[in-house]
Design a protein that fits this description.
The protein is of the alpha+beta class. The protein has 7 helices and 4 strands. It binds adenosine-5'-triphosphate (ATP) and magnesium ion.
Length: 140
């Protein structure tokens, strides 16, 4: 298995409910390491650019509004097959469909306020990590 890095975001519904530690405990228990981390408030422009792939979708405006509604924690996770491992630990987009034990099953409020983001491919992970972090901010 290859060591990879992926971008994770703890979303505003989770920071609001003080869940950052419980969420990161799941990543660490599964062997992923947090090698960069910052708590920020996304601007509208940043949220629109980050989720630009979804700009034609009916939920886009709501998603941007939600992602800018409170603090987020942006972080880089490192480990074996980190992109897929993070997605497994997160669970399905809609918490109603998420497996027991996943972050979204345990913590998500609904399909929009679903507590975490994770890159969906190695290529997107590289672009999303570079969106938030310079190489010197990532300490493995
Ligand atoms: P993310 O990209 O945040 O990791 P994902 O890859 O599981 O989530 P995407 O299809 O990329 O899901 O959707 C991006 C985000 O948009 C979702 O996590 C959720 O917050 C929101 N979203 C997706 N589908 C819907 C929907 N039908 N209604 C409302 N919000 C949605
Ligand atoms: Mg996605």
């Amino acid at each position: 298995m290859a060591t990879e890095r992926t971008l994770s975001i703890i979303k505003p519904d989770a920071t609001r409910r003080n869940l950052t530690g419980l969420i990161n405990a799941k990543f660490e228990a599964a062997g992923l390491r947090i090698v960069a981390q910052r708590r920020i408030r996304l601007s509208q422009g940043q949220a629109e650019a980050f989720y630009g792939v979804h700009k034609e979708r009916p939920f886009f405006a709501g998603l941007v509004s939600f992602m800018t509604s409170g603090p987020v924690v942006v972080q880089v996770l490192e480990g074996d097959d980190a992109v897929a491992a993070n997605r497994r630990i997160m669970g399905a987009t809609n918490p109603a469909n998420a497996e027991p034990g996943t972050i979204r099953k345990e913590f998500a409020e609904d399909i929009e306020a679903n507590s975490v983001h994770g890159s969906d491919s190695a290529e997107n992970a590289a672009a999303e990590i570079a969106f938030f972090f310079t190489p010197d901010e990532i300490v493995g």
